[in-house]
Amino acid sequence: MTIDSANPSSANRERALVGISGWLMLAAAVALFAIAAVIVVYAYPGLRGVDQGHEFAGVAGVLLIVAGLFIVPGFFTLQPNEAVVLLLFGAYRGTVRTSGFFWANPFNRRQTISLRARNLNGDKLKVNDKRGNPIEIAAVVVWRVRDTAQASFDVDSYLNYVSVQSESAVRHLASSYAYDDGEPSELTLRAGGDGVSAALTRELQERLAKAGVTVEEARITHLAYAPEIAQSMLRRQQAEAVLAARKTIVIGAVSMVEMALKQLAEKNVVTLDEERKAAMVSNLLVVLCGETEVHPVVNTGTLYT
Question: How far is CA 112 from the centre of its chain?
């Protein structure tokens, strides 16, 4: 463990520790108990049907039994993607990461930490976006413990730390971007996609690095206007959609009228003065831009009556 005495808040660093084989110590414990049993039988004559005993041998047998009992509490197992942090009288001794059956000094305090990837499915949060609009937002964070020493000693509870800092990061992200309708090159929450997810991942990694946690992925799972303005924003979006559709219709209608006039002139189908051209343009635009079906009126007279 590396600690700067001038800065008590400096981060701890994980130190790898090779665990003692549990099978070897198990064999040693069985051997101690077996030898102790033989000595006890030898020390106490009543067990062998003889009159003379050996008191010193009895003491040795008892000591061997105590030694065997000392070994037994030190056994522990590790599954894949698990680690055990060992502390001896408050001092960090190291971290065992290898899966298997191990033994450690029974006086060591052992803390098991999962190294598997975990999901944090955040609650829906009500915040204001960059433009002050109240919105609802939620995110999911995929994270895992990277440094067991930092997770154990640099924060009070790394699980609670991840939860609180994730909520804080999501709130900050929501207030840093507009919900939608930003500038042409502006990143928005609704249309940002991977860009917003990358920004959230970076901020979470900066916040959670102190706890020895690495963030693998972070994505927004829920995004909507708050209920009190949802209907107003829906009407605005509908109006914008109608305007965009009208704009497309008008552009197309003008192009078709221009094409019609050009082809009539090029093929000498009919010669129109400016007044008749204006009337024709007006009629064509009404037909092309109208929302309802147009019923034509057949002119039985001349073009000018």
Answer: 23
* Confidence (pTM): 0.67
List the Cα angle 63/68/73 in 5-degree steps: 130
Sheet with strand 20-21: strands edge to edge: 20-21, 100-103, 75-78
DSSP one-letter code for 301 = S
85, 97 contact by CB (below 8 A): no
Q: Which residues of the chain have pLDDT under 70?
A: 1-11, 43-57, 181-184, 228-240, 242, 269-270, 272-273, 283, 285, 287-305
**CA dist., res. 190 & res. 197, Å (int):** 11
If one counts every other C-beta atom within 10 angstroms of the C-beta of residue 302, the result is 6
Beta bridge partners of 108: 88
Round to whole Å and give the CA distance between 56 and 11. Answer: 53
Contacts of 91 (CB under 8 A, 6+ apart): 1
Integer distance in angstroms from the first to the last C-alpha of the chain?
A: 102
**CA-CA distance, 198 to 77, in Å (whole number)?**
38
Q: List pLDDT tens digits, range 223-255.
A: 887 776 556 666 666 666 767 777 787 787 788
CA dihedral 106, 111, 116, 120 (to 10 degrees): 160
Write phi, then psi, for 265 (nearest 5 degrees): -70, -40
Q: Among candidates 99, 106, 105, which has minimal Cα distance to 84?
A: 99
DSSP 3-state of 182: coil
CB–CB of 117/80 below 8 Å? no
- Give the C-alpha distances (Å, rounded to integers) separating 228 from 65, 175, 182: 74, 18, 22
